[in-house]
Amino acid sequence: MTADAGALKGWAAKVLAEGGVADARREAVLLLAHAARGSRAASSSAWAWSAGARDPVSPAVARRYRRLVALRAAGRPFAQVVGEREFFGLRLRVTRAVLAPRPETELLVEEALAYLRSGGPLGRRPSALSRPGPERLLVADLGTGSGALALAIASAEPGVQVFACDASQGALSVARANARRLGLARRVAFRLGDWWRAFAPEGGPGPRFACAVCNPPYLCEAEWQAAPPEVRAEPRSALVAGPTGLEAFWAVAREAPAYLEPGGLLAFEVGFGQAETVGAILRAHGFEDVSVRRDLAGIPRVVSGRLRPERAGGDRGGASRGAA
Predict the structure, then answer these.
(1) CA 285 to CA 150: how far, in whole Å?
(2) Which pLDDT tens digit goes with each residue over 237-256?
(3) Lower CB density within 10 Å: C or N end of the chain?
(4) 162 and 301 belong to one structural domain
(5) 126 Cβ contact list (under 8 Å, min separation 6)
(6) Assigned domain for 218 exists
(7) Are 29 and 49 in contact (CB under 8 A)?
(8) pTM above 0.90, yes or no
(9) For 13-57, how does the pLDDT look when each residue is reduced to its tens digit (9 = 90+)?
(10) Closest among 194, 321, 304 to 260, alpha carbons compared
(11) Residue 50 sits in which domain range?
(12) How many C-beta atoms surround the C-beta of residue 127 within 10 A?
């Protein structure tokens, strides 16, 4: 027996609102579009927005829709419910093993691309980006999760080679699958491990990077405990740094001089109120030209700095995630 699209959307909006979803009506439409994907010749999104009380919905689509609405109303993040998220023009698979990429994280991609295209470390010419082999600039994505940053940079700048790491095998499985789906598997090398030591697990010689981006966990324990169910449904290890929320910044910045080229860029995404402290952390570990970029809400969101040439080439220790 078929159902009416208008009645289903009205029911879904009510259920989602009762579940605490802020924009319940919009998400009711988006979930219907996802449930109907592949079932209609026309665009499922356009149909979902325009469908009214007399538009029939097949039993199969209605069942899928009710299941999606129930998951979202129960506090599951939208990206997990539909299994995907768009990031920097790329459609990425998202599971419960990874943090869904946020729009503000695209600022990290923009920061890295602007730096590389301006010449990279010590003013190397942008033309070097298109050269194959050892002259190609290397980029690191520390804590890659779904692979969003690594894949966005590789897709936008074919002249670089990207290395990406994560301490979660589940997250790396998702990232590798996204790379294959996007045709970028040869452009991004994935490694299992904590921060920099994933690229040189024995502490020996390894890649030296022109640029590194990192969206680390930056919540403190108290913030995690007070977070809404939707946030707590995402991987804790991708969100919580430790008692202060600053532990990951210290760990990454401390080891960075051993892995970056002289003049290399290190760029972090930071949480609310952290920008000034993270800038001080970068300066304390040999970085200069520290700058801050704000997101569309005006919140300081990306903090970056360039490694002073005399500080490059430090010892390659084994800093673990969460070390201060």
Answers:
(1) 24
(2) 999 999 999 999 999 999 99
(3) N
(4) yes
(5) 116, 117, 118, 119, 120
(6) yes
(7) yes
(8) no
(9) 999 999 989 899 999 999 988 888 865 534 666 667 667 767 788
(10) 304
(11) 3-74
(12) 10
